[in-house]
Design a protein that fits this description.
- Helix 11 (626-646) packs antiparallel against helix 13 and helix 11 runs antiparallel to helix 16 (790-798).
- With 897 residues, the protein is an alpha/beta fold.
- The chain is elongated and about 140 Å long.
- It folds into 5 domains: 20-114, no CATH class; 120-276 and 286-290, Leucine-rich repeat, LRR (right-handed beta-alpha superhelix), CATH 3.80.10.10; 304-432, Leucine-rich repeat, LRR (right-handed beta-alpha superhelix) (Alpha-Beta Horseshoe); 506-600, Phosphorylase Kinase, domain 1 (2-Layer Sandwich), CATH 3.30.200.20; 608-612 and 621-845 and 872-896, Transferase(Phosphotransferase), domain 1 (Orthogonal Bundle), CATH 1.10.510.10.
- It is built from 21 helices and 38 strands.
- The longest helix has 30 residues, at 4-33.
- A hairpin with a 5-residue loop joins strand 36 (661-663) and strand 37 (669-671).
- The structure holds 2-acetamido-2-deoxy-beta-D-glucopyranose (NAG) (9 copies).
- Keywords: Leucine-rich repeat, Membrane, Repeat, Signal, Transmembrane, Transmembrane helix.
């Protein structure tokens, strides 16, 4: 029987109980939290007295679990003790000690935090035997000394171990690698030495590792790369050496990477691309070098902080770095980064509170709008030029650049030589370009006397030379713009003009430079600026005050014949052509030294350009590609064709070789080495037959265009085979014997046997290579008269496919060279020679032709006489490309008319 009343009472009781529970619940809970263990209560009081804690924090007569600061209990047992930042009693302060023995009496303690509480002394060894329940041990900033005991490795339940900001010494015990549950390990700012234990690779649960500010040495262990949960890695301010291991790229979770202020060197590994979550990276203050991999940053949009300052980085900064929207700090200062700022910035939106420091690098060019988003900007110590735009923040640091209208900038010489070393022209701080220094009163009169002296001194010689040389009168081609370069000031009338009757027209020889100017431009002709000892003088690079880069030839008249430079001056007074290196001026004021000033050619000469050190770190050589080689061949042929066919009488260069073929910034050819140019001999002696070449004579120098053709053939063969310089005649002969047999008009594939191994050419280009080889071989015909004329060579090079790809009829024609003396007599005259019949002409001598009578005249197949303007017909026939030559004598005659 269930009593209705008793049910009601029970319900009421329950209700009351619930009400009571809710009203006094907190008290009930605290009731449960009362410290129930007498041992632990004793231990707490022991701790209180050994550490000298104050009643304010740990009062007597109240329950520690509920009323002591920093004590947490569970089931009546202490689980957490936190005395972080506590102050000791007056007495305790007198003799602070690392006296925590009673900690061993807490059987359930999972956390002990004593950070910022003074514990002078070393970590007791028994921690590793008695505190095995601990999950968190925080002894940071406790003035702890001594070594980290090996036994710490037994505290395998530790998830966080903070020992930072102490004076711990010795090595990091490898036993720490046993703490498999460890998530946070902070050993920073101690005096730890030795290397990072490789056992750290076992700490798979680690999310944060900080060993910064110690005295660690050795490399970063590769094993760290397996810590896939690691979000923060800080190894900064140690003495770590070696390079950054590529394995770090496996740290997929890494957000923060700080390797700064070590002795790390080498390149930044490409593999860091794996750091998909990286937001902050600091590689500053190391010896890292090379250029940054372009794709170093896989998800750049997350990046907030990039510091690479004070390394040896070079090359361009990956462009992506300029447009990361969330980037707060970009500090790449004190490196050798170079390049221009990108002009179109993706993020030229509103300014963020971002900081940019690119100071002390080698950036150049103008300031651009990429700078607009940075509120703090340090651009000092670069080579920026131009005006400072408005969007550059007022407080930006701009010193030591090449900027206009800003104080503390670099000197003009500094800026100009930096720009010229890159083949660029400095804007001269916005002032008008000038190669002339401001002429002061005294300077002017001084200069006049010098000039007068030079003129008077030179007159006698010049007069002698007129007789010798100056019958030459070249077709002056001055229809185009002044090729003498930019910024050449007008030559004052009268100055430098020799007495009447002297043929060298100094007014057409560019500027008069003072010796002082040239000293300044070349750093006193310092060895550092010496390009080479040429046969007609030493060549120096230099920079004029206006920033124009130049090359100066210093001719020491004690070792070089006077005629040489006068010959060259005469040449320049008569000839001006886009294919000839521009003469900017001269300086004749010194008695024994004369100077000629040329425009600087950024790509040097062909012999130094064919192979060049590539930019990458390895020492591999980069060779000119085929397109450029062909361009150079055509350019040189144009120059020679001008000398041979457009000057009257024809001029022979006499020094055609790779080092005479100068290259401007676009690899356009400018012929140099012009001190031995002379008029072709044999005017009126066409019929005199000499065989000096075949006898290898090095007798009195004579000049024939065919000699240039022969030398040009060597250059062409060099472009095909990759070998440009042969030092001796024997070597040249050997070279010909090894290569010429592989040049056949019937077999394209043969040429691949002698092809420069560094040339990558596909089938199409191979035909051009083949064509050039064929032209080269025909130029090398032992008989000067059989060598093709330069203008035909030029046409063949301009249309190489027409040389080899002549349809069947053309090929047939090739094979029947004897028939009707067709155009290929000019180009293919040598094919009837046996391959062993190889002419080696001593480089020092020049040759005479046989009179050219071997050309068989035939006007029947060609409508083109070889002297016309081939541009009049758009559709070129092979005949126009390699036109049928009239009889050689006719050509000679035409050229002289
Ligand atoms: C102990 O703590 C409880 C609640 O936190 C408080 O009500 C009580 O007054 C404290 N006792 C003493 C002696 O401070
Ligand atoms: C507390 O621990 C110490 C050291 O292990 C021990 O000597 C002592 O007896 C313990 N105290 C109590 C009350 O058990
Ligand atoms: C370590 O932690 C595990 C799980 O939390 C626990 O079972 C074990 O008893 C702990 N070890 C010690 C020595 O307290
Ligand atoms: C603790 O570590 C030390 C040194 O690593 C070792 O000798 C000892 O046996 C370990 N003790 C326990 C209880 O694991
Ligand atoms: C590592 O962490 C995971 C998750 O936080 C946990 O489940 C695992 O037990 C931990 N491993 C060790 C060895 O403590
Ligand atoms: C760091 O270690 C080197 C030797 O490894 C030692 O010469 C130097 O004194 C140490 N520096 C400090 C601050 O301990
Ligand atoms: C930059 O390069 C120059 C020349 O190569 C070198 O002397 C200098 O030490 C480098 N500077 C830095 C910071 O790497
Ligand atoms: C140079 O700067 C001054 C003020 O700093 C300014 O008044 C002047 O107009 C500037 N000159 C030029 C050419 O920009
Ligand atoms: C100087 O010459 C350079 C190159 O031709 C040119 O870019 C620059 O604008 C010139 N500077 C002035 C002020 O004319």
């Amino acid at each position: 029987m269930v009593d209705q009343r008793s049910i009601g009472v029970a319900l009421l009781y329950c209700l009351l109980l619930l009400l009571f529970e809710s009203a006094f619940g907190q008290q009930v809970q605290q009731q449960q939290q009362r410290l129930s263990s007498g041992i632990e209560l004793t231990a707490l009081f022991e701790l209180r007295s050994s550490l000298g804690l104050r009643s304010k924090d740990w009062p007597r007569k109240v329950d520690p679990c509920s009323n002591w600061t920093g004590i947490s209990c569970e089931n009546g047992s202490v689980i957490r003790i936190n005395i972080s930042g506590f102050r000791r009693t007056r007495l305790g302060r007198l003799n602070p000690q690392f006296a925590v023995n009673s900690l061993a009496n807490f059987t359930n303690l999972i956390s002990f935090n004593a950070s910022k509480f003074l514990l002078p002394g070393s970590i007791p060894d028994w921690f590793g035997q008695r505190l095995l329940t601990l999950q968190v041990l925080d002894l940071s900033s406790c003035s702890v000394t001594g070594v980290i005991p090996l036994s710490i490795g037994n505290m395998t339940n530790l998830t966080s171990l903070y020992l930072s900001n102490n004076r711990l010494t010795g090595q990091i015990p490898a036993t720490l690698g046993q703490l498999l549950s460890l998530s946070v390990l902070d050993l920073s700012n101690n005096l730890l030495a030795g290397s990072i234990p490789s056992s750290f690779g076992s700490l798979r649960n680690l999310t944060s590792l900080d060993i910064s500010l110690n005295n660690l040495t050795g490399p970063i262990p590769l094993g760290i790369g397996v810590l896939s949960k690691l979000q923060s890695l800080n190894l900064s301010s140690n003495s770590l050496t070696s390079s950054i291991p590529a394995q770090l790229g496996d740290l997929r979770s890494l957000v923060d990477l700080d390797l700064s202020s070590n002795g790390l060197s080498g390149l930044v590994p490409q593999d860091l691309r794996g750091l998909r979550n990286l937001q902050r990276m600091n590689f500053g203050n190391n010896s890292l070098g090379g250029s940054l991999p372009v794709n170093l940053f896989p998800s750049p949009s997350q990046l907030q902080f990039i510091v690479l300052r004070n390394n040896n980085f070079s090359g361009d900064l990956p462009e992506v770095l300029w447009s990361i929207p969330g980037l707060n700090v970009l500090d790449i200062s004190h490196n050798n980064f170079t390049g221009k700022l990108p002009s179109n910035s993706a993020s030229n939106g509103s300014a963020t509170a971002a900081e940019l420091d690119i100071s002390q690098n080698k950036f150049y060019g103008g300031l651009t709008s990429v700078l607009s988003r940075f509120t703090s900007t340090d651009l000092s110590g670069n080579y920026f030029e131009g005006r400072v735009p408005d969007y550059v923040h007022e407080n930006a640091s701009l010193s030591t650049n090449c900027l206009q209208n800003v104080t503390d900038q670099r000197t003009l010489t500094d800026c100009a030589s930096f720009y010229s070393a890159r083949g660029l022209i400095f804007d001269n701080f916005g002032r008008p370009n000038s190669t002339e220094p401001p002429v002061t009163e005294s300077g002017k009169s001084n200069r006049n006397t010098i000039i007068l002296a030079a003129v008077l001194g030179g007159v006698g010689l010049i007069v002698v030379l007129i007789v010798l040389l100056l019958l030459v009168s070249c077709a002056r081609r001055r229809s185009t713009t002044n090729h003498r370069g930019i910024g050449v000031g007008p030559v004052p009338a009268g100055e430098g003009t020799p007495s009447p009757g002297v043929a060298i027209n100094f007014s057409s020889l560019g500027d008069l430079f003072t010796y002082q100017q040239l000293l300044q431009a070349t750093g006193d002709f310092s060895d550092a600026n010496l390009i080479k000892h040429g046969h007609s003088g030493d060549l120096f690079r230099g920079v004029l005050e206006g920033g124009l880069p130049i090359v100066v030839k210093r001719i020491d008249l004690q070792s070089i014949k006077k005629e040489a430079y006068l010959l060259e001056l005469d040449f320049f007074s008569k000839v001006s052509h886009t294919r000839v290196v521009p003469l900017l001026g001269h300086c004749l004021e010194k008695e024994n030294e004369k100077f000629l000033v040329y425009k600087y050619m950024p790509n040097g000469d062909l012999s130094s350009s064919l192979y060049r050190k590539s930019n990458s770190e390895d020492d591999s050589l980069k060779s000119l590609d085929w397109i450029t080689r062909l361009k150079i061949a055509i350019g040189a042929a144009e120059g020679l064709s001008y000398l041979h066919h457009e000057c009257t009488p024809p001029l022979v260069h006499r020094d055609v070789q790779a080092s005479s073929i100068l290259l401007d910034d676009k690899f356009e050819v400018r012929l140099g080495s012009l001190s031995v140019v002379c008029a072709q001999e044999g005017d009126g002696h066409q019929n005199r037959i000499t065989r000096t070449s075949e006898q290898g004579s090095s007798g009195p120098s004579t000049a024939l265009c065919a000699y240039d053709v022969y030398c040009f053939g060597k250059v062409l063969l060099g472009l095909v085979t990759g070998k440009l310089d042969t030092s001796s005649d024997t070597e040249t002969k050997e070279w010909f014997e090894q290569t010429l047999p592989y040049i056949s008009i019937y077999d394209k594939e043969l040429v691949t046997k002698i092809l420069d191994p560094s040339l990558m050419v596909d089938e199409d280009l191979l035909e051009e290579v083949w064509a050039m080889a064929i032209v080269a071989r025909s130029c090398l015909n032992p008989k000067p008269s059989r060598r093709p004329l330069m203008r035909y060579i030029l046409k063949a090079l301009e249309n190489p496919l027409r040389v080899v790809r002549e349809d069947n009829s053309g090929s047939a024609r090739l094979r029947t060279t004897s028939s009707r003396g067709s155009w290929n007599a000019a180009l293919f005259g040598s094919w009837r020679q046996s391959s062993s019949d190889v002419a080696v002409i001593p480089a020092a001598s020049t040759t005479k032709a046989e009179g050219g009578s071997s050309f068989k005249h035939s006007g029947t197949t060609g409508s083109h006489n070889g002297s016309g303007d081939h541009s009049s017909s758009r559709r070129r026939h092979s005949r126009e490309i390699c036109p049928e030559p009239p009889e050689a004598q006719d050509i000679e005659r035409q050229d002289r008319d």
